């Protein structure tokens, strides 16, 4: 079966750095997405990785290793507004998105 | 800023009621999706429409009936629901229904409670 694993919940301190991991086992790979979802709101697109390596976008970076079936989302200079759930999703060989259950990130002052 | 709107935002219905969820996208996209989101579970894809044609139905019970009159509007008609259908129902759209980098943009969802 296809599976996406990410931690259920993480806690970090304002101003610090946090890394949210995602491992996947899918039938084929056509890219990996990260979304942010604040409580009661729409998931919003953060990043897309299809090649190995690190993609940086301001305070957020996303890393991919296809050989290891592994990605992480790195958030720097954490702000209280970063408290949200972070969803990892992989496109399989049929270009269907397979979703993880999400990681709830709690930022403390 | 998503460009995808959903109404109503909250809905409470009895098991014998009939109701409809509405989604509208203002992004000029050609594909639209319905998802179910339950607490602590991955998003479950329900239906996909490409250029108004249904291309995916993930074994969804017939008490959920989608309708896509044009590329900008998507409905989910509900009837005879069960309490376990209570969840957040998300609509999404994308430029074209496939491709690796084809990115889905979501609406804020309808929080459905079935009594």
Describe this structure in words.
The complex is a heterodimer of chains A (109) and B (115). Chain A is an all-beta fold and 109 residues long. Chain A is built from no helices and eleven strands. Chain A has strands at 3-5, 9-13, 18-25, 32-37, 44-49, 53-57, 60-65, 70-75, 84-91, 97-99, 103-108. Chain A is globular and about 40 Å long. In chain B, a hairpin with a 2-residue loop joins strand 7 (64-70) and strand 8 (73-79). Chain B is 0% helix and 56% strand. Chain B has strands spanning 4-7, 10-13, 18-25, 31-37, 44-50, 53-57, 64-70, 73-79, 87-94, 105-106, 110-114. Chain B is mostly beta strands and 115 residues long. At the A-B interface, strand 5, strand 9 and strand 10 of A face strand 10 of B.
How many helix segments of chain A? 0
Summed over residues and divided by their number, the pLDDT of chain A gives a mean of: 96
Kindly state the number of beta strands of chain A. 11
> Termini separation of chain B (Å)?
33 Å
Q: Shape of chain A, please?
A: globular
**Helical fraction of chain B:** under 10%
**SS-based structural class of chain B?**
mainly beta
Beta percentage of chain A is: over 45%
Rg result of chain B: 13 Å
**SSE string of chain A, helices as H and strands as E:** EEEEEEEEEEE
| Helical/strand content category of chain A | mainly beta
